[in-house]
Specification:
It is a single chain. By secondary structure, the chain is an alpha+beta fold. It has two domains: 182 residues, no CATH class; 47 residues. The protein contains eight helices and ten strands. The protein is globular and about 50 Å long.
């Protein structure tokens, strides 16, 4: 699922192609930027099937479950429920290498976050500590359900490590503000538990000046209780490219 992700989507698709992913199934939720152009010019070796999502409510679990089942019916051996701001990779090989070599039906993707450097435009800093909520790739099966945020899959079978993700949740204040506004509106339109998407709800209640203060405070190391994605106590300079490898994260941790 994508909406107004033109600034990051091309790099994400290039990363997936370099990791041996065979095909992408994507639905666009009313993008008003160049997202559709990016999808139309996807890497030649990565076929992208594009659909439209006019359902405004934040029913991510239901929507991603439908997409995963469509992939199953099309013959997919594995499903990676990725977001546009995530660079997936294998640990100890490509994604394709890892998935082809494991007998387990679920592989955990360890997730680390990267944030804009507040002192240097266009530069990044990596929080090398693993985020508490990883994601998962899985062998599709009838009845499998993807949980909210793509962090869980409900299906039987062993779970093993093997994948990694560099997550780029925030790229500029403008993107931060737009994401908050859309996320809070979409949650309001959905009949979900109050805890679902709590960070969108709390950030969405802030006015412009409060959001700007939260943005600058977050990048400067201040803890913003309303924000689920913010740097840890230690960050390191990091180069975000269109062909990341897990060795890059390992090196940043040394």
């Amino acid at each position: 699922m994508v909406r107004n992700e033109a600034d990051v989507l091309e790099g994400t698709l290039t990363q997936l192609a370099s990791q041996g992913v065979d095909r992408v199934l994507c639905v666009d939720n009313g993008s008003t930027d160049a997202t559709r152009d990016v999808l139309a010019s996807a890497p030649r070796d990565l076929p992208v099937i594009v659909g439209d999502d006019s359902w405004t409510a934040f029913e991510q679990s239901a929507k991603m479950t439908v997409l995963a089942d469509a992939a199953r019916r099309a013959g997919a051996a594995w499903v990676l429920p990725f977001d546009a701001d995530e660079r997936w990779m294998g640990q100890g090989g490509s994604i394709a290498d890892v998935l082809r070599s494991t007998a387990a039906p679920i592989v955990v993707a360890e997730l680390v976050n990267a944030f804009p450097d507040p002192l240097q435009d266009g530069a990044w800093r990596l929080d090398p500590m693993a985020h508490h909520d990883p994601k998962m790739a899985f062998r599709p099966m009838r009845g499998a359900v993807i949980g909210m945020g793509n962090h869980r899959v409900l299906r039987p079978g062993d779970i093993v490590p093997g994948l990694g993700i560099v997550h780029l949740p925030w790229r500029s204040f403008e993107q931060f503000r737009a994401k908050v506004e859309h996320g809070s509106r979409a949650l309001d339109a959905a009949e979900l538990d109050a805890d679902a998407g709590w960070h969108w709800r709390r950030l969405g209640a802030m006015d412009e000046s409060e959001l700007r203060a939260a943005w600058h405070g977050m990048l400067s190391g201040e803890k913003i209780p309303e924000n689920a994605w913010q740097p840890g106590d230690v960050t390191v300079p990091f180069s975000v490219t269109d062909s990341l490898h897990w060795d890059d994260i390992v090196a940043a941790r040394l």
